[in-house]
Amino acid sequence: MSFPPSDSHSDPDDSAPSGEAAALREIIATLLEQNGAQREVIAALTARVAELERRLGLNSGNSGKPPSSDGLNKKPARTRSLRETSGKKTGGQKGHPGKTLRRTEDPDTTIDHFPETCGGCGGTLDQTTAAGFNARQVFDLPEPQPIVITEHRAHTCVCQRCGEQTQAAFPEDVTAPVQYGKRIGAFVLYLLHYQLLPEKRLAELMADLFGVNLATATIARISQDAARRFQGFAETVRDEVAKAPVKHMDETGFRIGGKTQWLHIACTLLLTFYRVSAKRGSLLANVTGVVVHDHWKPYYTLAGVVHALCNAHHLRELQALIEIEKEDWAREMWRLLRRACHAANLARERGVMLNPRLLALIDRCYETILTEGFAFHEAQDPLIIAALQSKRRGRPKRRTGHNLLLRLRERKPDVLRFLIDPTVPFTNNLAERDGRMMKLRQKISGGFRSAAGAEDFAVIRTLISTARKQGWDLLATLCGDPKTLIEELRLA
Asked: Are 237 and 421 in contact (CB under 8 A)?
């Protein structure tokens, strides 16, 4: 009698497939883990490549980068201004005064020319046969004059009554046995701090044109003396700018003693104040009124002020989003801000406020564009996948356009302040223009050796920039009395 095989005993060959399956499952798990790690790396590299490509697409036309950073071989694909075409012909417009060289009725020198022989028969001619003339005028510089040396003699007189000897006093500005006068000092300051000539080239120019041989140490001393003399003027300008109804503020890096320090600029249409500081966040004290700036966050720590943001910065950032990221909402916001600027300029020229209905329309368009922009970015994939994001600290990384949208929403009153306050401009270009020549000084001479030299430069440039805005003659200003200049300051 036979019995069926017991279920508790299996064929030895049955264990082989189960072992292979376990090995395969282990391999699959390993591959999945590697694949996940590779996806994290690919996501990070993709984000990095996108960021680097964006940086390569930035230039002076679509970012805050200076034109010098474009380089000789890195010109923008198409050079264009943020300004739209006006439809007018290029060149001077009708009514423009121009600077055409014109005849004068009172020339300094007249030279008469008479023909010597007749063009017909060859007879002799002279001034007695003159019947008329044509005139041409040549405008030229006079021959450089030699230096004028004035000797001051303080005489001692003997009193006939008591026999006391009394010596006359020298003028206040005559303090040494031998010295240079105010005009030479003013010319040196003009060339050094306004035309930004290096000291050695300035010394060569003075020797070539005027026969004055100045040592560079003498040039430095002239600058130091002028800075001390006009320190009170600079402090007055500082106080007037701080309490002005509307002022512009900016800051830029300054190389001093081989280290990066900061030049702070505070200005109005008629005043400019420069200040050197080791800290970028060291802002001007006692500021009131409206402050126009470029959204650098420390400006929002100023207490008791109203803020207005530079929309030229916004237009450049929007331009980059249009050219690089191809974001449609950015183009719409760019157009809206440009049209709002045009409307505000027309109202300012006419001396009227913007129509409330137009303000409401601009506000609705502004909000609509923001809504479209946020919807666009919410539909985008995150820059870094969740597995990688969990390893990062801080808030999730956002795209450049998303960050700009947040600023335009959170700082909306500051962005559009130019629409409701006619005294607030659309941009912060005034402060940027006042800072441009300071950067040029650094490019020419490479910076300052000492903090004292940089501070002297800031004081004298405060004087020169303010004088230019006031319409003063620069050489006369540099020769002038600081107290008199303070009294003549126009504040509005």
From this structure: no
Nearest of 64, 70, 66, 57 to residue 294 by alpha carbon: 64
Task: Check residue 257 and give left, alpha or beta (phi > 0: left; psi -120 to 50: alpha).
Answer: left
Q: What is the pLDDT of residues 271-329, one digit of tens each?
A: 999 999 988 888 999 999 999 999 989 999 999 999 999 999 999 999 989 988 889 99
The H or E element that residue 248 is part of is strand 246-256
What is the rounded distance in angstroms from the CA atom of residue 304 to the CA atom of residue 323? 39
Give the whole-angstrom CA distance, residue 152 versus residue 174: 8
Element holding 267 (H helix, E strand):
strand 259-267
Q: Could you state, in order of their start, the residue ranges of all structural domains in the chain? A: 231-486
For the chain, the residue count is 492
Give which of 36, 443, 410 is closest to 255, Cα–Cα.
443
Q: Say what the pTM is.
A: 0.79
Cα separation, 375 vs 287, in Å, equals 39
Longest dimension (CA), the chain: 171
Q: Which helix (H) or strand (E) holds 36?
A: helix 15-57
Phi, psi of 375 (to 5 degrees): -60, -40
Kindly state the tokens that stand for 357.
């209905």
Burial of residue 176, with CB atoms counted within 10 A of its CB: 0-12 exposed, 13-18 middle, 19 or more buried: exposed
Span 199-230, pLDDT tens digits: 999 999 999 988 899 999 999 999 999 999 99
Residue ranges for the chain with pLDDT beneath 70 = 1-17, 60-87, 383-395
> What residues pair up with 452 in beta bridges, in sequence order?
none
b/e map of 369-399 (b: 16 or more CB within 10 Å)?
bbebbeebbeeeeebbbeebeeeeeeeeeeb
Helix (H) or strand (E) holding 467: helix 451-470
Secondary element (H or E) of residue 199? helix 199-210
> Pick from 451, 410, 105: which is nearest to 278 by CA?
451
The single-letter code of the amino acid at 112 is D
